[in-house]
């Protein structure tokens, strides 16, 4: 039989990771709205600012739902990836 608590935990974490991914996708939408010539200057400032605020809500909710250990693992993987890119660029310059 399925363990209902485990299933709920997995769904909650998956939803949290989805919210974190939505935060990163929101930056593209902010750029698109800021560069849209059909909007007025006021709208080009307000709409991206609102999306930025909503993105922070996604980040906070995503971290809460994904759990601190999953977020720590994602951070470690990002740092490893970043260090590989930085070291690769340093090797090419010398």
| Number of helices in the DSSP assignment | 3
Count of extended strands:
0
Order of helices and strands: HHH
Global mean pLDDT: 86
What share of the residues does DSSP label as strand, in percent? under 5%
* Helical amount: over 70%
What is the terminal separation in angstroms?
59 Å
Rg measurement, Å: 18 Å
Show unreliable segments: none
Sheet bearing the most strands, described? Answer: none
Principal-axis shape equals flat
Class derived from helix and strand content: mainly alpha
Describe this structure in words.
The protein has 94 residues and is an all-alpha fold. The protein has a domain at 4-67. The protein has helices at 4-34, 41-66, 68-93. It is flat. The mean pLDDT is 86.
Question: What does this entry show, briefly?
Answer:
With 94 residues, the protein is an all-alpha fold. It has 3 helices and no strands. Helices cover 88% and strands 0% of the residues.
Reconstruct the topology from this structure.
Layout: H1 4-34, H2 41-66, H3 68-93
Helix pairs in contact: 1-2
């Amino acid at each position: 039989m399925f363990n209902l608590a485990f299933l709920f935990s997995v769904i909650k974490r998956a939803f949290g990771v989805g919210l974190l991914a939505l935060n990163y996708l929101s930056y593209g939408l902010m750029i698109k709205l800021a560069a849209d010539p059909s909007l007025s200057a006021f709208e080009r400032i307000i709409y991206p600012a609102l999306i930025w605020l909503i993105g922070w809500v996604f980040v906070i909710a995503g971290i809460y739902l994904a759990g601190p250990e999953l977020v720590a693992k994602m951070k470690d993987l990002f740092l490893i990836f970043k260090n590989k890119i930085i070291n690769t660029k340093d090797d090419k310059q010398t």
